[in-house]
């Protein structure tokens, strides 16, 4: 496919494909387009967002089978080949010969690049080294001052993963962990407005026939879904991206509910009851399969992140040993044990 044809075909599966670089589009056309069409024939939609346990298990299965097929010693050598310079040539030859790209993505309806990054996160031994010590944080600041955003180099120096050092630096460079000031809040709101305006302008340029008055639900979706939080973090300057996201959702919730306390008193009890009943009725096996947008009205007119946060608090406070339970077991416990208590209390 030429580039324009690739964009047209991929746009059916990746709506934002025209915002991607030409090299990324060409790679996706080669690695993903045939897979995407195959999933479409099966009636399976292409997924984004957090990986489910089922998908994580499939990645582990794919990696294990590929190791068995090629004789490569372990997953670290397969996924972090540059760490083994003496064996690099042999490993890369085996990866090419046994079609590594296709094999690792088997059975997973997602872009190959996301599957590959997830596999690297699962199998990188440097990802599971616990909390950063005070000394490590100081080293990280020092290395960043010398090497800037070269996370690959910094990760090797610290024996941590690329993602881990990048995320930790983003967190520790923030200078404010207290209540948000009025100035910070204004910066956040301007930053979000800026990225949404740019995105809307791009979309309008793509479709000259687009109506000037968009559907309300589409506008709302833009307010809290898939915003570039690291870019927003940079614009705010004094807060970690996760703080920005949490604060923005808090602002949205207050605006959308006109400042009403939806989760207090009898309203709060009713909201918890509605949430448990709706989750139970969905009969899904993984939290990533829940349509949180649909659940918003179980509590009120609120962003999806607000509902997710309330569910998290509910399971942590009410379900014993919830970390060891599956999503289905958590929902069943809430429905069988907690729901009758809440209804009686109400």
TrEMBL record:
- Write down any Gene Ontology CC term: nucleolus
Task: Report domain Myb-like positions.
Answer: 124-169, 172-252
> Might you name a Gene Ontology BP term for this protein?
termination of RNA polymerase I transcription
Which Pfam families is this protein grouped with?
Answer: Myb_DNA-bind_6
Query: Which InterPro entries does its entry note?
Result: Homeodomain-like_sf, SANT/Myb, TTF1-like
Q: Tell me, what is one Gene Ontology molecular-function annotation carried by this entry?
A: chromatin binding
Q: Per its UniProt record, what SUPFAM superfamilies does this chain match?
A: Homeodomain-like
Q: Which domain of life is it from?
A: Eukaryota
Can you name this protein? TTF1 factor
Its lineage opens with: Eukaryota, Metazoa, Chordata, Craniata, Vertebrata
Quick one: which gene encodes this?
Answer: Ttf1
């Amino acid at each position: 496919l030429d580039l324009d044809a690739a964009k047209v075909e991929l746009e059916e599966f990746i709506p934002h494909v025209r915002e991607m670089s030409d090299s990324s589009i060409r790679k996706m056309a080669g690695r993903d387009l045939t897979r995407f069409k195959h999933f479409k024939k099966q009636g399976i939609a292409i997924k984004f967002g957090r990986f489910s346990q089922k998908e994580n298990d499939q990645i582990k299965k794919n990696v294990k089978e590929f190791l068995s097929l090629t004789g490569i010693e372990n997953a670290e050598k397969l996924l972090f080949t540059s760490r083994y310079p003496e064996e690099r040539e042999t490993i890369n030859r085996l990866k090419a010969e046994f079609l590594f790209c296709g094999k690792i993505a088997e059975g997973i309806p997602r872009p190959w690049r996301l599957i590959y990054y997830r596999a690297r996160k699962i199998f990188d031994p440097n990802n599971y080294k616990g909390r950063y010590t005070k000394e490590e944080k100081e080293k990280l600041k020092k290395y960043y001052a010398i090497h800037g955003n070269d996370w690959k180099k910094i990760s090797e120096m610290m024996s941590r993963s690329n993602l881990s050092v990048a995320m930790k630096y983003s967190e520790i460079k923030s200078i404010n962990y207290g209540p948000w000031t009025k100035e910070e809040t204004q910066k956040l709101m301007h930053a979000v407005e800026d990225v949404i305006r740019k995105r809307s302008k791009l979309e309008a340029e793509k479709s000259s026939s687009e109506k000037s008055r968009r559907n309300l639900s589409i506008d709302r979706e833009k307010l809290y879904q898939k915003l570039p939080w690291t870019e927003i973090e940079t614009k705010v300057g004094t807060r970690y991206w996760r703080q920005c996201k949490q604060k923005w959702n808090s602002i949205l919730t207050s605006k959308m509910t006109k400042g009403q306390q939806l989760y207090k008193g009898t309203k709060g009890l009713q909201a918890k009851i509605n949430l448990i009943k709706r989750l139970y009725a969905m009969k899904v096996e993984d939290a990533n399969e829940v349509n949180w947008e649909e659940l918003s009205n179980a509590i009120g007119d609120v962003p999806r992140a607000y509902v997710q946060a309330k569910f998290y608090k509910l399971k942590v406070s009410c379900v014993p040993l919830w970390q060891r339970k599956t999503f289905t077991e958590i929902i069943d416990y809430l429905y069988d044990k907690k729901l009758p208590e809440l209804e009686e209390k109400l």
